[in-house]
Write a sequence for this structure.
């Protein structure tokens, strides 16, 4: 049975998204037996959680980058923008 391979952590966000799209397409086709549908649903939820966590991490990194860029920008040119 391929169950151990199916529960493996995806190699990347893109791989997880591709696999999730395939799981959804397979389930939407409506041709799976009940047990296979439950297994596919479980895998889809694992992939969804992986994608959500990966996106949340990326958003946090962007916030950190933006905060650093804004601090550097304001520190270097803050006085020139104030003409009062």
């Amino acid at each position: 049975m391929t169950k151990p391979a199916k529960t493996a952590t995806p190699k990347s966000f893109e791989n997880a998204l591709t696999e999730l799209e395939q799981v959804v397409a397979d389930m939407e086709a409506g041709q799976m037996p009940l047990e296979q549908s439950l297994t596919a649903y479980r895998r889809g939820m694992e992939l969804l959680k992986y994608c959500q966590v990966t996106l949340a991490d990326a958003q946090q990194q962007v916030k950190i980058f933006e905060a650093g860029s804004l601090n550097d920008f304001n520190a270097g040119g803050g006085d020139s923008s104030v003409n009062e």
Remarks:
- Confidence is low (pLDDT under 50) at residues 1-5.
- Residues 34-77 form the longest helix (44 residues).
- The CA atoms of residues 51 and 59 lie 12 Å apart.
